[in-house]
């Protein structure tokens, strides 16, 4: 490949010759440099675009707000997760499938550990960013729950199961992920998340049993003569139940 050709990046943007990052990445880098130097609240969008050497219109072409530049990859990851779940086969075990979907989020964090740690520290310092992060987590949880609701349709408490399992997957994933981030990204985060998600699978792994295999309230009708003694009625019930 010649030096004048552009290299295609995973996010679909072209990287110019000489290693210059795409504008989106340049804006993120400029923003975090200023957040570290001045603080999040003291940094404006004008400051970010000035450092990145672009105009305000360029910033808002990529990010609706300053908060969005802190979480530049979540929209893509949410789209990837939704597509992954939509591509599920009917014989995929649903709890395992949502656990695998959660691992897509893990992969996003693990691709750039230093940036992930930096963002984690920033969100711990800024209440507004913590609230924004919670809204992002809620959207992931809703995507998992929507898939599970479809798989559990017709099951007893299907909606309840879906919501509980989705919340459990998110809680298990985030427990392991945040422990890793607090340790400055030391250790095997994949193994930690696998261990955490294992709890969910062991607790709910049979949750997709078809309706015919679920517990049911059996109804038994016993016909007896009017005036038959109670012991005779009991005897007929025990016989119907197969008891000696």
Shape: elongated
Average pLDDT figure: 85
| Radius of gyration based on Cα positions | 27 Å
Estimate the helix proportion, in percent. 55-70%
Structural class: mainly alpha
Order of helices and strands: EEHHHHHHHHHHH
Q: What portion of residues belong to β-strands?
A: under 5%
User: What would the CATH topology of the largest domain be?
Assistant: Tetracycline Repressor, domain 2
Main attributes of the structure:
244 residues; mainly alpha; Tetracycline Repressor, domain 2; 64% helix
Describe the structure.
It is built from 11 helices and 2 strands. It is mainly alpha-helical and 244 residues long. The chain is elongated and about 95 Å long. Residues 1-19 and 210-216 have low confidence and may be disordered. Strands 1-2 form a two-stranded antiparallel sheet. Helix 6 runs antiparallel to helix 10. Helix content is 64%, strand content 2%. The chain folds into 2 domains: 7-68, Arc Repressor Mutant, subunit A (Orthogonal Bundle); 73-213, Orthogonal Bundle (Tetracycline Repressor, domain 2), CATH 1.10.357.10. The longest helix has 25 residues, at 127-151.
